[in-house]
Predict the structure.
Amino acid sequence: MQVDIEVPASTTGRSKLARQVAIVSYIWRHRLASDGVRSVLTALRVLERLTEPELTGVSQLARDLELPKSSVQRMLRTLQEGGWAAEVHGPVTRWTLTPKMFQLGQRHQSENDLRTIALPVMEQLREETRETIHLSTVKGDSVFVLECLDSPQAVRAHVSPGMSIPLLASANGHALLSTWSDEEVAGILSRGLTAYTPFTITEPDALAAAIQQTRARGYAVNDQQWQEGVHGIAAPIVVAGVGVAGIGISIPIHRMSDELQEKFGGMLVRAAMAIAHGLGEPL
């Protein structure tokens, strides 16, 4: 196969040896980038082959995929290090997938089920409140926005699917933290609190008290702690004692009042219970 190579302009005017070194370096950088793509594709092909019911060995995999045995062996070892593939020892060593792939699929499916069940409830909330409604789950030290329905009003709070929001400075985060044990909450508070606005709670005792208040009333309140000018309210969706997600409302601060906060909080609690029931939680 012929490959056309465009010599980098920066190599002109150098000594012959320096120019040759630069060209070789340039070629290898591009070759490695191409090899990286091929490695990913090879890994996916190996994983796909391992999903078949029967166990398979390196030689059979190499024949099926029409790849060198050494390449397949290296790929299997890499997948084993990542926790995706495992050896099954016997007269002949064979390979299979670990539960990690199944768990990933289950997590994807559960998030899709949650979104499907939550969407009609979210749409009703948006219609009744005319504010931005969002659905989030915990991922590390953040809440990850799974779904969002924008307010129809010209001035509205901005939230979008895929957004990560600080767990300790958001209404959805506080709502989900209220389903954790005191020990778990204390553990995450001990890592330190970051100020995102002048209104962010940065004292662990004050935030612990706010989470306790959330437990008592059933919903969390966030007064400009993550974004100035935005008020948030959220309730946890609890299934079998576990907070699986939070459903929240974000509102421009100029439209917020104590009466509206209490009204929206009650609506969110009922919405969270309806979604939880759709996920199998008894009413």
